[in-house]
């Protein structure tokens, strides 16, 4: 039997090595936090944590300590996550306050996004056009605009995955939504006709929404553009009857194009839902809630998480899954449901999901906008 004083001396000796290593590990975690901020990554990296735990068990000589080693490493990673979150939250405060009421949309004047923005905020709203969807997110991040608008779903082509991915990448929130009717028209400069056209420019979604009509003109070259209105402007500037755009009536008028063939979209009643995004969560007296949570690669996870909605009589109106990207075959599930976020049913369901899912985020609570 050894002497307690001697045991404690040996423990002190080990701790004197452990603590500087712990300090070094935390310093590194803070460097990783900076990397995550610059690259818009989530603090929690489930795949990496699993790898760290596996390595810890691999390095053990006494395999009986496996559970203890897993708890030890899990606690250390939880501490580094807390530290990273604190660091990132402090960084957020350094951002300039956005100018009140300034708004951003992708495309140029006359885009469907601008139309949706005007319908939501009014004709007099102070708005700025940005070339790409991501430029709108960057402008919010820089504090250049208070809110932005991007399309999230079309009634014919479905989800706009880029908007979902950007929402996650930038960590922003949904503060409202606007749905608008989207009629696509074939437009050309004066003198153009179905016979002169050789190239058609539009957003990839615009081309897809008109695929049936375009099938009857296989000789045309289809060229995806940033945006339908930018395509209209390009065709107008080119002054070439061989080029046509698929765009809104408003964009065609704005850029002086003639409608060669109106309403060429496959679906009559084609509509697009836009989301208004901002830096902060602004839960409103709403009737719709959006959340995102992670799906672990385990049997029954999806069924179990969704059952919390059913058990609380909640009507889900949209589900979209997107790959996590930094971990293969794991997904983020985006769910929109009807109801007020403060209702007892919503609160119970969300609490259960929060406890059960590795990652959970309330994306927004706002007023639904449905087209009749
Ligand atoms: O590797 C990372 O991304 C880290 O931030 C480091 C670390 C860790 O402490 O090992 C912390 C949090 C992540 O969830 C995963 C791992």
From TrEMBL:
Keywords, sorted A to Z: Amino-acid biosynthesis, Aromatic amino acid biosynthesis, Cytoplasm, Isomerase, Lyase, Multifunctional enzyme, Phenylalanine biosynthesis
Membrane-crossing segments per the record: none
Keyword flag Isomerase: yes
GO molecular function terms noted in the UniProt entry: chorismate mutase activity; prephenate dehydratase activity
E.C. code: 4.2.1.51
Family matches, as CDD domains: ACT_CM-PDT (cd04905), PBP2_Ct-PDT_like (cd13631)
SMART domains cross-referenced by the UniProt entry: CM_2 (SM00830)
Site features described as Essential for prephenate dehydratase activity, chain residue numbers: 272
Domain Prephenate dehydratase: 102-279
InterPro entries on file: ACT-like_dom_sf (IPR045865), ACT_dom (IPR002912), Chor_mutase/pphenate_deHydtase (IPR008242), Chorismate_II_sf (IPR036263), Chorismate_mutase_GmP (IPR011279), CM_dom_sf (IPR036979), CM_II_prokaryot (IPR002701), Preph_deHydtase (IPR001086)
GO CC terms of this entry: cytoplasm
Alphabetized SUPFAM superfamilies for the sequence: ACT-like, Chorismate mutase II, Periplasmic binding protein-like II
Pfam families given in the database record: ACT, CM_2, PDT
Domain ACT residues, every copy: 290-367
UniProt-annotated location(s): Cytoplasm
Catalytic activity: prephenate + H(+) = 3-phenylpyruvate + CO2 + H2O; chorismate = prephenate
Major location category of this protein: cytoplasm
Chorismate mutase domain sequence ranges: 1-88
Function description: Catalyzes the Claisen rearrangement of chorismate to prephenate and the decarboxylation/dehydration of prephenate to phenylpyruvate.
Designated name of the protein: Bifunctional chorismate mutase/prephenate dehydratase
Organism whose genome encodes this protein: Youxingia wuxianensis
Organism ancestry: Bacteria, Bacillati, Bacillota, Clostridia, Eubacteriales
Gene name tied to this protein: pheA
């Amino acid at each position: 039997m050894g002497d307690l004083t001697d045991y404690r001396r040996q423990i002190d000796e080990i701790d004197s090595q452990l603590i500087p290593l712990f300090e070094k590990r935390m310093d590194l975690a803070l460097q990783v936090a900076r990397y995550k901020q610059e690259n818009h990554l989530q603090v929690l990296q489930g795949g990496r944590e699993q790898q760290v735990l596996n390595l810890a068990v691999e390095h053990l000589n006494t395999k009986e300590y496996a559970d203890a080693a897993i708890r030890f490493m899990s606690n250390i990673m939880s501490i580094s996550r807390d530290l990273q979150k604190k660091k990132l939250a402090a960084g957020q405060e350094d951002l300039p306050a956005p100018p009140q009421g300034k708004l951003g949309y992708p495309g140029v004047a006359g885009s469907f996004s601008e139309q949706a923005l005007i319908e939501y905020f009014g004709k007099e709203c102070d708005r700025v056009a940005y070339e790409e969807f991501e430029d709108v997110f960057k402008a919010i991040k820089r504090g250049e605009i208070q809110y932005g608008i991007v399309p999230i779903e079309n009634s014919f082509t479905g989800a706009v995955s880029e908007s979902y991915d950007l929402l996650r990448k930038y960590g922003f929130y949904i503060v409202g939504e606007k749905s608008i009717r989207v009629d696509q028209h074939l437009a050309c400069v004066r003198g153009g006709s179905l016979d002169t056209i050789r190239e058609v420019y539009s957003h990839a979604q615009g081309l897809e929404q008109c695929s049936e009509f375009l099938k009857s003109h296989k000789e045309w070259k289809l060229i995806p553009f940033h945006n339908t209105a930018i395509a209209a402007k390009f065709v107008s500037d080119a002054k070439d009857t061989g080029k046509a755009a698929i765009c809104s009536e408003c964009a065609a008028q704005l850029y002086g194009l003639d409608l060669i063939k109106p309403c060429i979209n496959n679906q009559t009643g084609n509509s697009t839902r836009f989301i208004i995004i901002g830096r902060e969560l602004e839960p409103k007296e709403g009737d719709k809630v959006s959340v995102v949570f992670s799906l672990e690669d385990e049997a029954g996870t999806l069924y179990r998480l969704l059952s919390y909605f059913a058990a609380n009589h909640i009507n889900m109106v949209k589900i979209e899954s997107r790959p996590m990207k930094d971990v293969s075959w794991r997904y983020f599930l985006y769910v929109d449901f009807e109801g007020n976020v403060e209702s007892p049913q919503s609160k119970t369901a969300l609490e259960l999901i929060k406890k059960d899912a590795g990652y959970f985020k309330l994306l927004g609570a706002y007023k639904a906008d449905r087209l009749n």
